[in-house]
Amino acid sequence: MILILTGEIESGKTSVCWKMLEHTEKELSWGGIITVDHGKDRFIHDVSTGEEVLLSQRIQDEILFNQSRYHFHQSAFEFGNKVLEKCTDIPFFVCDEVGSLELDNKGLYSIFHVLEKRHALCSLLVLRKKLLQLYKKKLNSHVKVFEVTLRNRNQLHLDIVKYIQKL
User: Fold this and answer.
1) Rg of the chain on CA atoms, in Å
2) pLDDT of residue 114
3) Starting at the edge strand that comes first in sequence, how are the strands of the sheet with 65-67 ordered?
4) Ordered domains of the chain (ranges, CATH)
5) Which of 10, 27, 42, 96 might form a disulfide with 34, Cβ 3.0–4.6 angstroms?
6) Cα separations (Å) of 166 from 49, 90, 97, 159?
């Protein structure tokens, strides 16, 4: 089962993910990646190990892609893809910040390969609302969509947990 968590930029998608992981850490085994901000820098966080690698920043040095206001580091994508590839058998999987790069087989490109291998397992993708229809078409499968809004972002993690527990 593929779940999609979507919403506008800075609507609280990643915060909902963090709350969900914290709420279920004792009962559900999660794997995958989620982002975390430290100042102006954004890191990829391995949910299983806690390891973090710099994903993006607003200054230029070892830059792979310049996508909107962020400059991405190739080493973070390499790290992220390695983490994702290990998640084919983990019961609960999250991949935060998938976007247009992945649709072009860049960035966290292994996400689609991993999802193909995860037939009966629960996968949660986090993406911006403007990309929802493109991802639904690319995934070519039934997905359950949860949208983060200012109104529901403080309790949406509980709704997602209830849905997962019914699976």
Assistant:
1) 15
2) 94
3) 65-67, 70-72, 52-57, 41-46, 30-38, 92-95, 122-128, 2-7, 143-147
4) 2-117+138-166 (3.40.50.300)
5) 96
6) 27, 18, 26, 11
Cα–Cα distance measured from residue 78 to residue 63, given in angstroms and rounded to the nearest whole number: 13
Note the pLDDT of residue 67.
53
**Lookup result for tokens 């991993």:** 114
pLDDT tens-digit profile of 27-85? 888 999 999 999 889 999 999 999 999 998 866 554 455 555 567 889 999 999 999 99
List all residues 6 or more positions away from 143 whose beta carbon is below 8 Å from its beta carbon: 2, 3, 4, 135, 136
Q: What are the pLDDT digits (tens) for 76-124?
A: 999 999 999 999 999 999 999 999 999 999 999 999 999 989 876 899 9
- How do 41-46 and 70-72 pair as beta strands? unpaired
On the 0-12 / 13-18 / 19+ scale of CB atoms within 10 A, 97 is buried
Phi, psi of 163, deg, nearest 5: -65, -45
Residue 154: the pLDDT is 96
12 Rama sector, left if φ>0, alpha if ψ -120 to 50, beta otherwise: left
| Tokens encoding 39 | 């100042």
CA distance 161 to 113: 25
